[in-house]
Structure formats: C-alpha cells, structure tokens
Amino acid sequence: MHKITVVGQGECEFEDQFTLLECLDEAGFDMPYSCRGGNCGACEVRLLSGKVENIQDTVYETDEAHILTCSVIPISDIKIELI
After folding, report:
1. Residue range 3-24, pLDDT digits in tens
2. Distance between CA atoms of 83 and 80, rounded to whole angstroms?
3. What positions belong to coiled-coil segments (predicted)?
4. Cβ–Cβ under 8 Å, residues 52 and 75
5. How far is CA 46 from CA 53, 69, in A?
6. Where are the domains of the chain?
7. Would strands 44-49 and 2-6 be described as parallel, antiparallel, or unpaired?
8. Distances (CA, A) of 47 to 21, 41, 78
9. Are strands 66-68 and 44-49 parallel, antiparallel or unpaired?
C-alpha cells in the first residue's frame, strides 16, 4: 500500500486498483479526466515527490515533472498537485 497525497485535497491509499486515477476516483477526489486511455491529457497532474510506473502507452506526452493519472500506478508514496 502506498500513500497518495493530493495537495489541497487530502490523502488516500493505493490498494491494488488498476490505475492511479481509479484509486483517486474511488476515494472521492474531484479529479479531471476524459478518455481514461492516455489520449487527451485531461488527467495530467504534477508529480511533486515519489515514483510511479507507466502501465500503458499514451498518445499524449508529458514532461518529466507531470504524469497522466489514467496511465500510471504508484510504486512509492507520492505527492501530486492538480495543474
């Protein structure tokens, strides 16, 4: 289990959900998203600390400081910020 901190919104635990977005959605966070497949970039957030693993290839590209919550899982405790 890894702790996820969303700046200004709170914390939750990642417990074997399919994606980070699914975890945040189940925990009641108001996270932006559209396609859930890495095509649109609507779920892009800034990764402030921690590490994630990409679990699917995406069409939308991010820089090193940003991630798509629909396409990653945390592999450590993480802290993210909506952009």
Report:
1. 999 999 999 999 989 999 999 9
2. 9
3. none
4. yes
5. 15, 10
6. 2-82
7. unpaired
8. 13, 14, 7
9. antiparallel
Q: How many CB atoms lie within 10 A of CB 64?
A: 6
Q: Which residues contact 5 (CB under 8 A, 6 or more apart)?
A: 11, 77, 78, 79, 80
Q: State both tokens at 48.
A: 């402030």
**74 CB-side CA count, 13 A:** 26
Q: With H, G, I as helix, E, B as strand and everything else as coil, classify residue 71.
A: helix
Which neighbouring-strand residues pair with 4? 12, 78
**Domain 2-82 sits in CATH 3.40.50.1820:** no
> Quick one: how many helices (H) and strands (E) in the chain?
1, 7
What would the two tokens of residue 8 be? Answer: 């200004």
Positions of the chain with pLDDT lower than 70, given as ranges? none
